[in-house]
Amino acid sequence: MRGRTESECTICGQTSTTFWIESLLHLTLPPGRQVSLQACFAKYFAWRSADDRNDKCQDRCQRQDCRRKCEAVDFWPPTLTLHLKRWLPTAIPYVFLKERRIVDFPFRLGADILPNYSGAPYSLRSVIVHDGHACGGHYTCYARDTSDRWHFYDDAKTPTACSPQDVAAAEAYMLVYARAPSTAS
Hints:
This protein is mainly β. The chain has a domain at 24-46 and 77-179: Cysteine proteinases (Cathepsin B, Chain A). Helices cover 8% and strands 46% of the residues. Strands 3, 7, 11, 12, 13, 14, 15 and 16 form an 8-stranded mixed beta sheet that branches. The chain has a 4-stranded antiparallel beta sheet with strand order 2-1-6-5, with no helix packed on it. Strands 4-10 form a two-stranded parallel sheet. A hairpin with a 6-residue loop joins β14 (150-153) and β15. The two termini are 27 Å apart.
């Protein structure tokens, strides 16, 4: 996907734009007991403090604490991969805690949730789950086949059929959506 980071000074008004290309979006979980994917997107695309020490007003106020920034996606890819950032830093260097809240995610994504999106809706294809903690764990996957049936994959075990309710209850670490094929009128 192709996007940009807009940055502006809240004091002098100086602006800058940085363009980027990414294969996935890294979404931070917002505070609260219940978390929706829509709230994760709202947090990702909202204006926030630019805490980068290198991002300061070069010409005018020369301060480092005066900037804010926001993200925007200009081109949404055919396959959208979302990483839900579940590792929380602690006061101890290189030690992280795992965020264990369930994220409510839709099985279809479209313009109602994705900003600046006007294409065919995305359909959820797989959910990757991390079971464990920061120092170790195990990955499993829920994936939908071409007949729209869900299966649970766990290493050498035989894949087992599962329900959409099982998928929705998973502690998602990554979500993979594919754009629905467009139909000719």
